[in-house]
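> Could you send the PAZ domain-containing protein prediction when you get a chance?

Sure thing. Input:
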Amino acid sequence: MDSFEPDGNGARDGNGAPDSLPPPPPVIPPDFVPTRVEEQEPAKKKVVRVPISRRGLGSRGQRISLLTNHFKVNVTNVEGHFYHYSVSVSYEDGRPVDGKGAGRKVIDRVQETYNAELDGKDFAYDGEKSLFTVGPLPRNKLEFTVVLEDISSNRNNGNASPDAHGSPNGNDRKRLRRPYRSKTFKVEISFAAKIPIQAIANALRGQESENSQEAFRVLDIILRQHAAKQGCLLVRQSFFHNDPKNFADVGGGVLGCRGFHSSFRTTQGGLSLNIDVSTTMIIQPGPVVDFLIANQNVRDPFSIDWAKAKRTLKNLRIKTITSNQEYKITGLSEKLCKEQMFSLKQKNVKDDDGEVQELEITVYDYFVNNRNIDLRYSGDLPCINVGKPKRPTYIPLELCELVSLQRYTKALTNLQRASLVEKSRQKPQERMSVLSNALKLSKYDNEPMLRSCGISISTNFAQVEGRVLPAPRLKFGNGEDFSPRNGRWNFNNKKLVQPTKIERWAVVNFSARCDIRSLVRDLIKCGEMKGILIDQPFDVFEESPQFRRSSPVVRVEKMFDEIQSKLPGAPQFLLCLLPERKNSDLYGPWKRKNLADFGIVTQCMAPMRVNDQYLTNVLLKINAKLGGLNSLLAVEHSPSIPIVSKVPTIILGMDVSHGSPGHSDIPSIAAVISFH
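Output:
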């Protein structure tokens, strides 16, 4: 093949003859004036985020030693790398596997089956798309095929019989002979990135980077995987063991399940493992009928609202007491157990054409007569359906038990929330004991991935030095200074700094039992002692007895109808008397109606044990809501706040509130406030 090389006389062919092509035309016109090219700005370096350095330690106050819920972590292997791999798990036909927890079982089987091909590497798998190892796998892209029994935590797929000996679904025996419960999965593992473990040490020196964030993410994924292998329920970085000692009944068939939060943190003292108690809500495990009775607060199964029960049970997991196999509830039967028919294939009875004959039978008769199972009350109740829409599989209610550790994600009632707070309360020593036991139970020292990183975790609470600051002095309306004691102070014989005047107001009574005339008299007298001038109320609105059994929203609406019909204009303030001391269902609708719809200031109270101290506390809230000022910090009287007092300054405060669990339709609300 000919080759051409440039020389001083132009191009020549491979035999040394001059190229016959004419010389190229000039590319620069004769009148061209070159311009100087301005130097380009050098590429900006990526900004490295570094925490604000601390100028020094404080010195005021009484020094004390404190124990924290942090456990010191040592890292000895900082020379290696985490290797990040992208994971794809699909069925044999290419459909992606999207069931929760399914991916973990498939990846575990890959590790068991192909351990040699993977060089015996341990994985940290996030349960979705990412997998991490310490050091590389043999190749950048690996493909595996594994076979698993039903991936849904040893559950049946909803079509097999409850005990593999027969079922209300006549086709079950035929299907059971097929290996349909064994599924084939394809797994692809592809290299994505390399993360230096040194990034952890760099972060501890204040050199934060994307690598350090990724490295800490890997460590937290290792904790999640470790908990998953122990059979825990995972809720982000919180882990919950299936131990009845950790369950607290909050009513309505709902339990508070106590677990712990665990994650790695960078601190001034180095790397630490932060552990704290955590609580999530779960469905009460055990007989389905017991859960429904508690959930709907009824006396017996025959009082259950089955339309509501169907919505509540949808997608919950059960196991049958006859076989201990698991199923997912898809619905309820349309008819009662004694009336619900299905076609049962007669194994040994064939027609003239050799086809297996079918017998129409009720679910109740099938279980009682064919399976010899005694049903005490299920005959007159709907059945649980664990099958598919076109191929239902019915199981009598009393044979079904709810599996443990199933999250309850609906909003809690006021009573449930109060019960949870009460039962979650812990004293410091009890909390320390729980956290120590959580660390021992976790057995992080046995986690192979952590060992590969050279990570060891102390079993002792990290100790830090703290200071008890002196309480700030307060100023009251009569010019008196006061020093709080043990975080408390009272307003006995003291006036407010800026008391308001209450002129247009009324009392609203939602069937609370009290002497309203005496209550109003005492409130006015107590207000006068604090400097608040309170006129007589315009009126007292008593709830009509006919609405007392209505829903809270209806009761509030009816009360407002009466208020609007009698008051000449919008009131300055409404005092609302509630019948329950705590957790009244009227509170939320009443507040919403007043504040959101009309912008009316309101104060609720339950007038059961009314004394001067109680009325003083109520008046402090009312005064603040109406724009008054109860007390000041003594320091606020003299401009002594550093910098802020000497230079015109505006201070901004911002916060955001998100919808609580079970209220996903409620938008997040952000608020900004400023003062100068």
